Amino acid sequence: MAFGVLAAIAAFARHGPKGARGSFVTVRLRLARYLGLALELQLAADILSTAIAPSWEQIGKLAVIALIRTGLNYFLMLETRHEEDQIDAEKRKASPPSPPPTQPSRPAVKPPAVGS
């Protein structure tokens, strides 16, 4: 997670705080991916620590932690997909429309002569 924060800070510094909206959103999406990965790794670590000699209290705490982290990860990824879709839509809107694909022309075929 620390690596993700450092990478996001470096990218933000490179693009500048007054950069375009797209660069800010790109930095946010990069940080969101690192946060999602960190949530998954922390959940795995909690599961492994509980697997050694679990008590019912530890299992209950793990269930609550797993529920909270899974919910956070779900909504984080949902927002990430939404932002990526908006960026794609803006790119499609900004780019000139491409011409429709052309079909290769077929040579004209003469029908066979009848009665020749």
From TrEMBL:
Origin superkingdom: Bacteria
Protein name: DUF1622 domain-containing protein
Region named Disordered: 86-116
Cited InterPro entries: DUF1622 (IPR012427)
A Pfam family that the UniProt record links to this protein: DUF1622
